[in-house]
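G., before I forget:
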Amino acid sequence: MSFPMTVVVAVKALGRNAMRTALTALGMIIGVAAVIVMVAIGNGARASIERQIRSAGSNVVMVNAGSGGFGPARQGQGAVTTLTDADAAAIRERVAGVRYISPALNTRTQIIAASANWNTLVQGTSEQLVDIRSWPLEYGAFFDASAVRSAAKVAVLGSVARDQLFGAGIDPTGATVRINNQPFRVIGVLTRKGQGAFGQDQDDTAFVPYTTVQKRLLGVTHVSGITISAEDGVPLERVAAGTADVLRERHRLSGGEEDDFMVRTQEEMTSMLTSTTTTMTYLLAGIAAVSLIVGGIGIMNIMLVSVTERTREIGLRLSVGARDVDVLTQFLVEAVVLSLAGGALGILLGGAVSYAVTALLQWPASVTPQSIALSAGVAAGTGVFFGFYPARKAAALDPIEALRYE
Amino acid sequence: MSAAPLISVRALTKTYDLGETQVRALRGVTLDIMPSEFVTLTGPSGSGKSTFLHLIGCLDRPSSGEYLLAGQHVAALDTRRLAGVRNRQIGFVFQGFNLLPRTTALENVELPLLYAGGVPARERRERAAAALAAVGLGDRVRHHPNQLSGGQQQRVAIARALVNRPRLLLADEPTGNLDTRTSIEVMGIFQRLNESQGLTIVLVTHEADMAEYGTRTIAFRDGLVRSDVPVVRRRTAAHELERVAGDAEAA
């Protein structure tokens, strides 16, 4: 019998028992849909983490002052004071592809307003930080380069700091707050950005020029880090490598000496975080795959029942000239058609559920072509694997005994 | 009947091994059946007549002995070639009709052509429709078996057996599930096919009167041929139907 004919015969045979076919396919439908949804949710988790990381600024290379100390006693990160704003200037000048750059020096301290006070992270940066992080303002403006040069006592508040010091929704520009007992003029408020990649509240902060932190708050000349954003299309690894070269030269580190700084690209941080969610995705998909196997066993069960029930039909087919391979193919194709149809419906159902999850839970669950291809492949494979034993049983029947079967 | 025999068996035996006991269903049968014969096989159950039918129908293999179908040693063929022989040279009709349920009469009749291979869909349909018309069911092609009477179902089965134009028609108690009148009608179809097309028919029956529709009766007992005689007073279906109708009027 030709293969297309076999498929037609298989579809007709399945159609003769529509209810049973539907229930058997349901096992497959649920299994495939579960895989699709679980993978989509896992991908969604990864996408949302990547989005949070990107909110820290795109194409970012971070330099942190390294750990220092001699011998066995090592100090913590940032203990070294060799990193300066002159390093930042040198990087800007000598490393190709640097778009924005900002030294960083932070201190956690109390900010006092007229009627409230709040302990928050005061971040010293250059005027380019808002560009690095593409962070629009709600009120006022960010400080400019001249404020950085003159170590001006101006502050831009994060929305949470503003809420605590002045009240939600208030425009505090022009007001004065006291930081370390010195008056700072509030010149702007940033829009709300939400939680960062590591769970910190990005809005509970205040920005001041890093020069101001150096001279007026901490009384130091170094910085604790440098944030660099690369031009579009420039590989971050190249910017990172160029930065490291400049810093080693400026810090006069000879060949054998360790770096006194750490350069990390955003991609490294992303891959570190996403590897966790990838593991979780595999775990979810693995659990869903179990239901796929259960669906496959359901198909095998029904095919075995079907072979027993249709013993006389098999005997008849053999008597009118079907070869054993014809019978084998017929039942195998029935199982594969069943599982593929279930798989196709499962993909549709999984897509619909993923869409509903996205729409209702604001969770970006994305159905990927890979998960569809994987499900379809697994469905077909399940059909062949679980259909083979019943089909072989059918093909091995003795014609006379099959014809006599009651 | 001077030509070569269509069926030629020599010392044919069949022993079923049932573990502890062995059943010797056939103990050595030797006979020839010529083309265009209408042979009826009779005998009590367990006499070996059905076993003999299965062996000459290539549904089973003999334990020993020779079987030539149209001069070919079919016992030596492998399973797949045997399937081909069943498909092209032999048509089967069973007591229980064995039609596929929820499948039209036309599709049931087409079935052997599907396994013949190389027959285009259009030709399949035409040949199946012609075979149904030949058994008087030209107007029932779209009916499912459960919409047909027993006699009609058996006629669909006969059409299925004939659709691939075999030389040999084997029937295993084809009238066993039918009433008298329908049985006579079915026997009439066999007689017509035998006389008009020269189809060789071998038919198993345990009803003595059905055996008289053929041209030769072979009686089995205990796995051996007990008698092998030509039918002297042959019944014809047309005549028998008139008689049945007359009986009905008298009653």
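Residues 3-52+272-404 of chain A form one domain. Strands of chain A lie at 60-65, 98-112, 117-125, 137-140, 154-157, 176-179, 182-190, 205-209, 225-230, 261-265.

More on Monday.
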